[in-house]
Amino acid sequence: MFLKKTDPKIFNLLKKEEERQKTTLNMIPSENYSSQAVREALGSVLTDKYAEGYPQKRYYAGLKYYDEIENLCRERAKKLFKVPYVNVQPYSGSSANQAVYFALLRPYEKIMGMGLPYGGHLTHGWKVNFSGKIFNSIQYKVDEKTKLIDYKEVEKLALKEKPRLIFVGATAYPRIFDWEKFSYIAKKINAYLVADISHIAGLVVSNVHPSPVPFVDIITTTTHKTLRGPRGAMIMVTEKGIKKDKDLPQKIDKSVFPGLQGGPHMNNIAAIAVCLKEALNPSFKSYAKQIVKNCKILASELKKYNFNLLTGGTDNHLILIDLRNKNISGKDAQNLLEEAGIIVNKNEIPYDPNPPFNPSGIRLGTPALTTRKMKEKEMKKIAFWVNEVISNKKSVKKIRKEIKNFCKKFPLP
Ligand code: DSN
């Protein structure tokens, strides 16, 4: 109401974006729709306050209610993930991962993570990122044929290179992580083992993906993907991590503040607390189960249309498609699908012969569609549309209309 008067340009852009979200199918697997309650906390008076420090140890006045908010957030996270310690202040997943490195290592020490082209994240040691520049980074790949993590190869590489820290996690891996195998490898070389569960956090707390808690020392996660909260992140230390190094929690705290960040975004922390309460509700488990059910049915339908799914399918919330048999690049497919109202992202496939800006694949997933209460029947329809668009450019206009109508039945939260 106020925005419309004071800044109509931003107001109008915001309205347009709202309309775009309402009338398109968001299949970017790292995105979701947060609840109105989450957005209310995010857009609250808490945005105006500095709160450097931690509960009971702050550097500013006027913080009467902030310790309670941060403690609530921490307690809910501990309960949900079943961990003894959590830091809820990182501004983003990248900041959380930075804090882990700087808490445990000195520059140029050796780290190991999955390479970006194979599904890993930039911050897991990729060469253009701080993690690949400041640290001596060794990268593991997926197997060229199966596109699965080859645990024997990872073990060989780890034993040869002896990294001090191993990151496990991905942005484009459609299968389950075997935490136990990674734990066995890390133990052999006495490396810290860190799970970045940003993509799968919502699945982990709902038991649709095994939890890394018994097997790793530290867990990082963003809060806005399958967890369905505001943008933000958390760092957790497990019992195992504390057993290995009782000072780990303090090291993490110091690394976040004052090591890397200044004042925590308290509006964000309150919104994370709200999303954690939502995730503690039994209905969240059904939501997460449905994400995977939807993804599996979407995968099997796409296969019927002769789409080449990497690893042959999915165990989680996302699908990676190698489009080379369809004679279209990832970039062109992304653009064409967007014209029709289907939002996916172009993505490198492992061992991609094409460059990252025009890769051979697309990545798509079901967290946001499932938030809109779409189920198996709708997945079949969407797979049909994806195929129509990719195989017949002329169908785009007609399908755009159909999707607009279809979206009316599935309101945003
Ligand atoms: N941008 C995220 C994703 O899309 O997976 C990773 O940081």
Please give the radius of gyration in angstroms: 22 Å
- By CATH, the superfamily of the largest domain comes out as Type I PLP-dependent aspartate aminotransferase-like (Major domain)
Helical stretch tally: 17
In total, the number of domains comes to 2
**How many E-type strands?**
15
Average pLDDT, all residues: 98
Low-pLDDT runs:
none
The CATH architecture of the largest domain would be 3-Layer(aba) Sandwich
- Which strands sit side by side, in order, in the main sheet? 4-10-9-8-7-5-6
Shape: globular
Largest sheet: 7 strands, mixed
Hey, roughly how much beta strand do the residues contain?
5-15%
Structural class by helix and strand composition? alpha/beta
The small-molecule ligands in this entry are: D-serine
CATH topology of the largest domain: Aspartate Aminotransferase, domain 2
Helix content: 40-55%
Quote the distance from N terminus to C terminus.
20 Å
Word description of this protein:
This protein is α/β, with parallel strands linked by helices. It has 2 domains: 21-34 and 283-407, Aspartate Aminotransferase, domain 1; 40-279, Aspartate Aminotransferase, domain 2 (3-Layer(aba) Sandwich), CATH 3.40.640.10. The chain has helices at residues 2-6, 8-23, 36-42, 66-81, 93-104, 130-134, 151-161, 179-188, 201-204, 239-244, 248-260, 266-280, 282-304, 330-340, 367-371, 376-391, 396-408, and strands at residues 25-26, 53-54, 57-58, 85-87, 110-114, 136-140, 165-168, 192-196, 218-222, 233-237, 308-309, 318-322, 342-343, 345-347, 361-365. Helix 7 packs parallel to helix 8 and helix 13 (282-304) packs parallel to helix 16 (376-391). The protein is globular. It starts with a helix and ends in a 5-residue tail after the last helix. The site of D-serine has 4 residues, from loops. D-serine is lined by residues 30, 93, 121, 171.
